[in-house]
Structures are given as structure tokens and as C-alpha cells.
Task: structure prediction
Amino acid sequence: MRIMTKRSTWALPYAIFLVLFVALPLVIIILYAFQDTSGSFTLANFAKFLNDPDAIGTFALSLEVAIENTIICILLGYPAAWILANKKLNRSAVTIVLFIMPMWINALMRTLATAELFHVMGIQLGKGTLLVGMVYDYLPFMIYPIYNILNKMDKSYAEAASDLGATPWQVFWKVQVPLSMPGIMSGVMMVFMPTVSTFAISEFLTNNKIKLFGTIIQENINSSMWNYGAALSLVMLVIIGITSLLQDNKKDVSGGIV
Amino acid sequence: MKKFFAQCYIWLLLVILYAPIVFIGIFSFTESKVLGNWTGFSTKLYSNLFTGDMQGTGSLMSAIENTLLIALIAATVSTFLGTVAAIGIHNMRGRGKKAITFLNNIPMLNPDIITGVSLFLLFVFLHVSQGYVTVVLAHITFCTPYVVLSVLPKLTQMNPNIYEAALDLGATPFQALKKVLVPMLKPGMISGFILAFTMSLDDFAVTFFTRGTIGLDTLSTYIYTDARKGGLTPELRPLITLMFVGVLVLLIVINIRNIRNARKAEE
Result:
């Protein structure tokens, strides 16, 4: 037992690392967000954000695009995951791999390919292509967690429900959907959060016509407006915090594919 | 009939999903500078890519090298740091364990841009000049949590008495570590390493914010700059194609056996 307790000190280097590279940077974001350029306390950065119609508009648009993208991904992804997990309808392991694979490819590369295809097809880049491109990018991240949970689901619940007289429609809404909720929630996290915070992807897909919130943060940081950039980052952190509170269970889907 | 419609839906989605990459793949076999303009079959772009012989874009080769080297260093350090940390965390109790698990989850939940901006501000705050080292440090920051989470389950499954037995039988703690602990944790360490490696390869935002102004490019930042300039480097087409095919083959080999075995076991 003595050795066991001693081994707990092995976490110490990593604990120090985490404090230095995870906790401290977040504290610094907060610090910068509430400071002006001379380093004294101010709320001006947040006032600037609230009084800037452009920034507010972009913020609203980012939320809107992220919500729309998430909903489209659920609507397209749930049936796909359901079919993939259903052994009567799909026996091919290749299709599963094909759906998972894009998760392993550099997102910028995939987005670039999509944007180029739109361009060559003569489709005007704008909000429409932004949404379609986002769905392209994030659909696999919705399908995979839902597929995982449906695959593990005990079939006898559905069978019991239909034995007890539920219609297939009732079985789906009252049994399958509630049981697959954790998968849907992980999917929502894996789609909504990256969409709301993206910056390069939106620039590619709209040819810089539409700015999302991430782009505004990046522009401010890059033009040395660190305090304002930090304040905007803090706003985004709050959004992310609220989203992750909606999901109480831990996601265990992060790349369990190897 | 139901099966027919189900299969149609699945394949229709796949065709739409893969259209852009197939398109890039097709046009990687022609020399035309402009995408979508077929000027006859040619493998010149591929040979250019391998010989590094392209006008003014030697930087693409160095971007590829940087990407691989950074991923290799970050994944190796993360695997080591994360495994040692996992052993420590596994043996911790109470508040300390909760705190470190909480901190460990933050980089995974944080969007890339927040991780990037926060580390950028940290380096500014500490007056550290940014470049290769800061990029590697940043990558280790977001890679290690995945290693910790890959190794921890292996520790939980492990019988702790085996390690104790090795010590009782006269092994030094180092021998017990090398001969008993590491072999048992190996599967977790390997999947942690692979995860860390791919996370690092994929990263754009964190690299973008922590690379400083010394002109360090990884593949992602190269693509970003290239696309913003307009006129995509033609050699990116074979590169994207090769990466897709490579990953596809790898995943099919790894997964098909797993999935088939799992299905057999179920039936």
C-alpha cells in the first residue's frame, strides 16, 4: 500500500504542466478581457462588443449557422446511423468505415476540396455553400456517436415495446430515440462546438464574404487587439460552457475507433 | 424493399460526401494549373510532389516535414507524459484526483480557437518568443489528455497484485515497471499515441496562433495561406488524394476485422 500511495506522486509533473498550460492561459484570457491596453481594470471591452452591431450580428449569425448545421446533421445523420447499426439493413463493414473516415482527414483539406467543387460547378459562394460545407465537414461527427450507441443498444427493449402493442412509430419515438439520447448529445457537442468556433472553414466556404465569430476573434488577436480578442474569447467560452452543461454525461466517443 | 431504400440512402449520402475528394482525385491526374480544367492525363503533379520540384513552392515540402516532425515529437512526449500521469492519477484519491481529471478534460472540451488564443496570450504574457517550441508545447497540451484517457481504462482493468508480486519477488521498481506495468498498458499507450498523432496532424487553429511570426508552416497553415492567396498550388491535389487513400486503406485494414469479429461474437 505504501508503494501505491507513493505512485500517486507520478501525476505531479502532469499536474504542474496542466496548471501552466491549461489553467493559467484561461486565467490570462479573463485577465486580458477585463483590462485596457495599459493594464488597468475595465469593462470597456465588453461594452465595445455590445455596442458594435457588426460583432453582435456576426455573433448571432455564428449561433444561427451552428444551430442549423447541428439540426441538419441530426436529421441526415440519425437515419444513416440507424441503418448502419441495423444488421438486417446493412451488413457491410466498409460503409461504416467510409462514414467514419472523414473524421481522420485534415478538416481544412476536406473544406478546401468542397469549396473548390462549388467553385468549379459555378455555385455562388455564400450562406448556402457555408451550410452545405459545414454539413459535409461535421456529418461524420454526428453519425459516429449515434451509431455507437444504437449498436450497443439492447434490442429487447424495442421488441418488448412492440410485443406490448406499440406501433413501429411509437417504438421509434418512445423507446429508440430516448435510449439513443446520449449519442445524440455527444453528436451535438461534436458538431455544435466546432461550428460555433470555426474560423478558417467559413472563410474558405464563402470566399471571405461571410464572417463568423471565430474569424472576428482571430482578426483582433492578429491585429494585436489582445484585450478585445480576449473578451470575445471569453464570450465564446461562456457559450461553450453553457452547451457542455446541457450534457451531463461524459463523452466517451472521442476517437475510440483504433 | 426496406433494405433497398436503406442502402440507397446510405450510398447516396456517401456519394455526396465523397464528391469533392473524388473530384480533387480526378484532377490530380492532369497538369492544368486551374482546377476543373482537364488538359490530358498526366502524373506530373505526383512526380513534382515527390521530387519537390515545383516553382516557388519548396515550402510545401518543408510544411509537410514540419507537420510530421511536430506530430511525432508531440505524440511521443504526450504518450510518455500521459502514461506516467495516468499511473499517478489511478493511484490518487479524493479532491486531488477530481481536480486533475477536471483540468485534463478542459483541452478536450475547449474549442481549438480558445486553446490557441489562450496559449498565445500565455506566451505573450510570459514574453516567450513563439516558434517551433511553442507549437510543440501547444500540441502536447491538447494531445496528452487523450493519452491519459486511453491509458486509464487499462489501469482499471489491471490486477494491481501482479505489480506488487513482481516487487515481492525481488524486482526493482524500475524492473517491475518495465516488465510488468508497461506491457500491460501497451495497448492503451499505442491507441493514445495514434490519437495524439492524428490530433496533431489535423490541427490548424492552435498552430496558427502559437507559431509566431518566424514563417513556420505546417500543412494546415500552408493550405490556409495558399487558399487565401487564391490559386491553389496544383501539387496539393495529389497530396490530398494520397492522404485520403492512405487513411482509407489504413482504417479499412484496422476496422474491418474488428467489426466482423464483433458481429460474429454477437451472432
Q: What stands out?
A: The two ends of chain B are 24 Å apart (CA to CA). Chain B touches chain A through 95 residues (CB under 8 Å). Chain B has two domains: 60-233, 237-267.
